[in-house]
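User: Teach me something about this protein's shape.
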Amino acid sequence: MQGTAEIRFTHPDDFREWVRQHKRREMVEKLMTEREAISRYVADGDYIAYDFSSLTARNPDVFLVHVHQADAFGNARIFGTNLFALEAAMASRKVIVSAEEIVDPLEFRKDPLATTIPYFLVDAVVHLPFGAYPAGVQARYELDLEHIDKVSAIQAEDQMQAYLAEYDHPLWKDLSGDAQGAGHGGMDYIEDYRLIKCMREGLPTDMNVYDAAALSAVVHLSEQSVARKSGPVDFPDFTRGLWRTHPPLGILRA
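Assistant: First, the predicted structure itself:
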């Protein structure tokens, strides 16, 4: 970790007061993509922390933490040993949680003492299976020491760009040139390309009718939430639980 940070608070209770004043207690959905989370909550010059084990007391702008489970509201669980997740979340201005698994909020109500980080400390939730890789997640997957050595050897920007290019998604490699200038960083072009390709070739589309219903429902549910003064609204499961067993899309090419 490189950079400097301002020591803004001299006593832990000072920052607890800041959390009470600035963190919303309403249970609103925070699930989004990793690009959305970074664009909303990370700014140039922010002090970003993901490991507090070697730091003296300080208050980062952003804390990135990967967990076993989270719900859409931001409640998060880490199973097994963790050294500082709650303390780091309480000490940071913004908290982005990435999770191996997104679970129903009722799971947290069944066992509230298993909650590692409560929802009101969290600003964004990203569903990111294998998000800790090449590090490991207890009882999920082990460290990839060879890959960690490869990442640790990166010392310059050109090395980082070469690394990113090597592991970029094949579909993005194929279409990123044509997608330049399109909306949402090029993803609008890629989604339209894939839809037209599937229709021309008689293939199942990448997004099905249940995805379309979920995307469209956001408008109506948001209207209900506003009418309740930003109160929580249950999001319907149009698949009736079948999303849990639906096969993943896989890695696609153009």
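Now, about its shape. The first helix runs from residue 12 to 22. Residues 87 and 165 are 35 Å apart (CA to CA). If you'd like, I can walk through any region in more detail.
User: That's plenty for now, thanks!
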